Model the fold of this input.
Amino acid sequence: MAATLVLHNARVITMDAARPPAEAVSVEGDRILAVGSDAEIRRYVGPGTEVVDCRGRAVLPGFIDAHCHVLAYAASLLSLDCSPAAVSSVADIQAALRRQAEAIPGGNWIRAVGYSEVDLAEGRHPTRWELDAAAPDHPVRLIHRSGHACVLNSLALRLCGIGSETEEPGGGCLERDLSTGEPTGLLLEMNELVERAVPPLSYEQLAQAVGLASGRFLAAGVTSVVDATHSNGPAEWELLRRLRQEGHLAPRLTAMVGFEHREEASGWEKDSFLELGALKIAIKELGGGIYPEEDALGEMVMEAQAQGWQVAIHAVEERAVAAAASALAGAVAQLPRQDHRHRIEHCGLCPPAVAARIGAAGLVVVSQPAFLYHNGERYLRQVAPQKQGYLYPLRSLQRAGVRLAAGSDCPVVPPDVIPGLYGAVGRRSQGGRLLPGEEALSIGEALAMYTSAAAYASFAEGERGSIAPAKVADLVVLSGDPTTCPPDELLGLRPEMTIIGGQVVWAVGR
Done:
């Protein structure tokens, strides 16, 4: 049988324990035909075969981003960049807002994203009054880099119906001036309320933005993504399906489902490029408290377990991680079910006893090792020294028997996989500082987080995540071999070609 595509003269890293590294891969249509030596694969070359000489570069399964937010990431690419790379002070943010206000008519919303209070010269969040000084005639929404906080100017607060008498929703916090009681503009975990007032992007704008996001994923070697947005419902599903069908989003997509939409989701239309994911529950964490509280969380998880759902719980801080572990372990104990693959998303602060419970319950942890690189300096300043040893404790979780997968959580950080590999293996910040704890992984273990284990986390290991005959031909060609590259040289690696379903969808120079 002649192949439609052959990659040869390569270092093929199969991520399949039963298949050693190889030299070549043949593809027929959208499936892998064979994996082996150059001599073995040469017989699949026919007159119509596209042959790619990899010149000794590494070929891996296409990377899987097991936790991201596609629509939010897309929207961020059309928003005003206020990230640490673009601004270093409140004055810089004001200058950027003034320029934007001059460019668009009054009354139009200014969407700004990515600020980090600890990276600003003032070391604090901006206030509504500072945003007013820059753009008094435009409602302004400035989103924190975490996505869990934002600052609104006075006009935006009025349009959202927020004033001194406003009561916070469960799990939300409205910061107030201590002397007057007036809102300062900072809102924590109140996105749902703000979203009702901010006009959505038009479909044409969103399609453009998703196209940009898709290109970023492909350039990162990402061939599959899991949208982990906890509010996903029928409207978001149909929007994502349309964007996929019209070719704006190239990677395969698995979309999680908001808890309140669990009854209707089974009827949503699916295909080989758009799949239904886990039921998502987000724990909001404020001032040491959590919402929903432990009892309510346990009831939600028990209901989902009884209905046969895979459950994914957003939990970052120590109390939330412990609550998620207890709720999931309790449901598994009371209503045993084979191969549930329940997930904890993030698991940022996880002491040894909680890691042991996560492992005993057979849970999956979907971590963000790129945070160690991008946010490492912030963690060293803000996380208590006695807790830094179990900050994203990848090695401890693995020793406890936990299957580890990885995602970017973009737009929190970009979707690039290489910094994530570096974070998992080197456990160093962007500034080169080593984070405490013996928690680093080997490069093979780190690669599994973005390939075979990421596929496992979504019940997709039969289709993707490793290079083997009959699996989908989703592949990435890297500039070098990460398995032989010294850890401090990992950041120099770059994706050079991305293949989805046997088609080259992105390549350097194309």
The chain has three domains: 1-61+466-510, 65-69+201-464, 79-195. The longest strand covers residues 274-282. The radius of gyration is 23 Å.
